[in-house]
Amino acid sequence: MNKRDLVAAVAAGTDLDTAAATAAVDAALSAVADALGKGEKVSLPGFGTFETRTRAARSGRNPQTGEPMEIGPSTTVAFKPASALKAALTATS
Questions:
Q1: pLDDT tens-digit readout, 9-25
Q2: Nearest Cα to 47, choosing from 20, 83, 19?
Q3: Domain 3-59+73-92's class?
Q4: How far apart, in whole angstroms, are the C-alpha atoms of residue 40 and residue 38?
């Protein structure tokens, strides 16, 4: 599913036209991104929780030259699915 499919599903599941559904999806995704950018957790009951995690600096190798190099610390997004989502995925498998 891509963004266009998500917008179509939101429009079909509500009384919104495509433009309004696009605005709603954009606003929701922007709110999630803004909260994560501030370091906040985003919890969606029945779906899961998004949070940021910091990766420590580490040593690595340049894949082209094989030279050792230092990889700096970074922040990434992690998702932990809710038990209801896990159960729904298990039921459909």
A1: 999 999 999 999 999 99
A2: 83
A3: few secondary structures
A4: 6
